[in-house]
Amino acid sequence: MGNLIFYGSDTVELAKKYGTPLYIMSEDYIADRCREIRENFLEKYDNTMAVYASKAFLTREMAKIVKREGLGMDVVSGGELYTALNAGFPMDKIVFHGNNKLADEIEMAVKNDVGRIVVDNIYELDLIEDIASKYNKKANILFRVSPGVDAHTHKYIQTGQVDSKFGIPLNENIIHVAVRKAMNCKHIELSGFHFHIGSQIHENEGYVLAIKKMVELMKELKDKVGFVTKELNTGGGYGIHYRDDENRKNVAFFTDAIMNTLEEECCKYSLHRPLVIIEPGRWIVGEAGITLYTVGAIKEIPGVRTYISVDGGMTDNPRPSLYQAKYDAVIANKIGEKPVKKVTVAGKCCESGDILIWDLEVPEIESGDILAVLATGAYNYSMSSNYNRNPRPAVVMISKGSDRLIVKRESYEDMIRNEI
Ligand code: LLP
């Protein structure tokens, strides 16, 4: 019997110190994943780059950790770029994504010399050319292409080429025209291509198939357009452990397959292997985080179900209600006690769909217990909302048994701060 110790910190003590709901992030876990990427990808293969997809979790403190760990960063909005800038993140290691970047976002990127802008469509190309010419700069870009590979469901399925809001279809008439156009832009340097096939992927087939298509494209462009691809960004998507039916693979499981396929395919067509970029988000932070809640109301419907309600919910973790995502959880102050029943964990929002976990085995449970939902480090804080005017929880970073507040809890005053 005891308390949940998460990477060296007593979670029940953290709940007492900072209150609940509370996001806890382990800096040691994040540093470990970054080290794994350095050792098994960056140091193993030359001409490679790894960027952290900051949409998974971003604060200034996170940007500083990523910088220290030697990775670059993928941003998808002015807000993420601003956070990186404000944290002193090196702009040459930024990859700027987005299917509808606004003129002021592009301006911010160009002015600050971000390393790469991933261009999603031809409209954006014109916008970048205009803005870069205004500042008399040359913007380094990659084209995002949709390779017609969809790995969202764990197995790859070929989709209709155009059926995605992201990227330029791999269609000769479209992509060749785009490349020719970029080559003629005075203020744009086209370095290569990007693809991203999906998220929470546990197999390699999708990456392998996409790379084969990309290398065919590289060959075609070299022969027909005279364009030599210098960089290939293979996106993120590496899956993690949420519950016992899914495990997190070593980064090498993905990157070795990516690199081997690319070497083979390039060799087949006598092409130089381009610089390779990877951009995992979830894989770096997902399991670094847990969320602590206090159990409040417990309602037993005899013969039907027991609901335990917590002091957060879909506002701090929208993934179960958005994607039917499944999470595991433990009663943090009753570790080691035998499970005696199944409960349903409900959030406090005015929505029947605000259920965090449908069936959770728990020991004898009572109001005041601390529930720790596991693997909430990715796409929780970053997707949180103020629905029902619930203030967002605080975020605490832990490392080697010490803890520090990195985002303070929102107040009721924050709920009305922008109102006139
Ligand atoms: N690169 C690009 C271009 C992306 O669009 C994404 C994710 C990533 C990298 C990072 O993917 P990751 O390694 O984290 O799987 N909100 C959803 C996930 C959306 C992912 C969108 N793009 C969720 O909570 O599952």
Automatic annotation (TrEMBL):
The modification N6-(pyridoxal phosphate)lysine is found at residue 55. Its cofactor is pyridoxal 5'-phosphate. Pathway: Amino-acid biosynthesis; L-lysine biosynthesis via DAP pathway; L-lysine from DL-2,6-diaminopimelate: step 1/1. Keywords: Amino-acid biosynthesis, Decarboxylase, Lyase, Lysine biosynthesis, Pyridoxal phosphate. It comes from the Bacteria. Substrate binds at residues 282, 319, 323, 351, 379. Its EC number is 4.1.1.20. It catalyses: meso-2,6-diaminopimelate + H(+) = L-lysine + CO2. InterPro entries: Ala_racemase/Decarboxylase_C, DAP_deCOOHase_LysA, De-COase2_N, De-COase2_pyr-phos_BS, Orn/DAP/Arg_de-COase, PLP-binding_barrel. It is an enzyme of class 4 (lyase). The active site is at 350 (proton donor). GO terms for molecular function: diaminopimelate decarboxylase activity; pyridoxal phosphate binding. Pyridoxal 5'-phosphate binds at residues 237, 279-282, 379. Residues 39-285 form the Orn/DAP/Arg decarboxylase 2 N-terminal domain. The keyword Lyase applies. GO terms for biological process: lysine biosynthetic process via diaminopimelate. Homodimer. Belongs to the Orn/Lys/Arg decarboxylase class-II family. LysA subfamily. NCBIfam families: lysA (TIGR01048). Specifically catalyzes the decarboxylation of meso-diaminopimelate (meso-DAP) to L-lysine. This is Diaminopimelate decarboxylase.
